[in-house]
Amino acid sequence: MVSNLFKLISAGSLPGFLGRRGQSESQICGAVSFRLFIPGPVELSEATLQAMATPMMGHRSPEFVELYRSVQPGLQKLFYTTDPVYVSTSSAWGVMEGALRNVVKKGVLNCMSGAFSDKWFDVSKRCGKNAAALRFDWGRAVKPEKVEAELATGKYDAITLIHNETSTGTMNPLEEIMEVVGKFPEVISVVDAVSSFSVLPIEKDALGIDVLLTGSQKALALPPGMALFSVSRRALERAAEVEGRGYYFDFHEFDRNHQKGMTPSTPTIPHLFALKQQLGRIEKEGLQARYDRHRRLNAMVRGWAKDRGFGLFPEAGYESVSLTCIRNDGQVDVPSLNQFMRENFAVQMDQGYGKIKGKTFRINNMGNETEETIAWFLDCLDQAIAAT
Ligand SMILES: *Cc1c(COP(=O)(O)O)cnc(C)c1O
Q1: Whose CA is nearest to atom 2 of ligand 1?
Q2: pTM of this prediction?
Q3: What is the CA(93)–ligand 1 centre distance, in A?
Q4: Substitution site in 195, 197, 217, 220 for ligand 1 pocket (most atoms within 8 Å of beta carbon)
Q5: Secondary structure letter of residue 356 according to DSSP
Q6: Residues 77 and 33 in one domain
Q7: Which residues line the pocket of ligand 1, CB cutoff 6 A?
Q8: pLDDT tier at 33, thresholds 50, 70, 90
Q9: Cα–ligand 1 centroid distance for 92 (angstroms)
């Protein structure tokens, strides 16, 4: 690792990064840490790592209730909701599966346009739900008029939509889709905002989203292992009528415990400490400044790609602002680039996801990234392209 450290210094180091690398080598687990530029998990701040190391408290203690309640206002602001925000000790998929078990009685329409949304359809079937697929090619956006035509058949009482399809770097037109969904009062909407939450405003109540969920390791820049979600009253009413909700993801268990400032089972308390710290950081930066920063960093990456002659994978007009999915038409060998980045800069880059691995690669701009860190990464990538 000594040679990597030397190269890091010569490449121009990142603040707060070298120090952590130095520390990590003396840690008991001995894991080598890479500077992450992948679309999740994203790089953590030193303050977040320190918050995670706070001593534990009992999860039925008054101190816990205070901690739990203290994060609610910040979360409700980010969710743009007056409904409670629940904390799940699971990755996002726990809540994605749980939502199906809670709200689908008659049938669910799964909008599909990439790896995560395709899988959600599979999960619906595995839960024994009557599920139908509304398919779009990878990289295409979900089209509101197709959603409307399908919902108009009357076969559904729920719909799932991924706002930002992370695998293809495509952002779906959420407002337009929710406008259409709103025409069907029977339909409960479940929206995955895992890789768009806090990148741009997603106004849950104003858009009429029934279940809005996110994970910890994307734009919130927390470690993986926690999901956050908010549920409308009418979705809770629906859940009350649905059999087989189970226990761990039962929305009513969450709601009952929420009233007491608690979670159904022992939660990931370290994540709550870290969440509190990150909410403080978000508050300090200001929401609009945060959204503006994500847009600027995203524009930097897109500009870089354009200048180097790369096209983007997503359909024009629907490119994500959380990450950039770059089309590789043979200009670069992505595995070689990745190896060079690891060995010379101790950076972990993305190599594309699922069936478009290698034909694309993605650059993350979610979380705590800045002009400085993105410029550093792009400079490293230029050197890697020149060398491979
Ligand atoms: C990362 C991601 C998920 C999955 O999150 P897990 O934490 O692995 O459960 C789901 N949906 C989207 C859009 C994602 O980006």
Answers
A1: 194
A2: 0.94
A3: 7
A4: 195
A5: G
A6: no
A7: 40, 91-93, 116, 162, 164, 166, 192, 194-195, 215, 218, 224
A8: confident
A9: 6
Which CATH number belongs to the domain containing residue 194 in this structure? 3.40.640.10
Pair (90, 175) in one structural domain: yes
Sequence-distant (6+) residues with CB within 8 A of 96 are: 120, 123, 160, 190, 192, 213
Atom of ligand 1 nearest to the CA of 195: 15
- Terminal Cα-to-Cα distance of the chain (whole angstroms): 21
The DSSP 8-state label assigned to residue 357 in this structure reads: B
Q: Beta strand 347-348 with 35-36: parallel, antiparallel or unpaired?
A: parallel
Q: Which domain holds residue 189?
A: 51-282
Measured from the Cα of 116, ligand 1's closest atom is 11
Residues 333 and 220 in one domain: no
Residue ending a domain, choose from 246, 267, 282: 282
Identify the CA nearest to 367 among candidates 79, 121, 35, 140: 35
Domain end position, chosen among 282, 316, 349: 282
Alpha carbon nearest to ligand 1 atom 12, residue? 194
- Please check the confidence at residue 204 and state whether its pLDDT lies above 60: yes
pLDDT at position 316, please?
98
Are both 111 and 250 inside the same structural domain?
yes
Residues 240 and 103 in one domain: yes
Let me know whether 79 and 145 are in one domain. yes
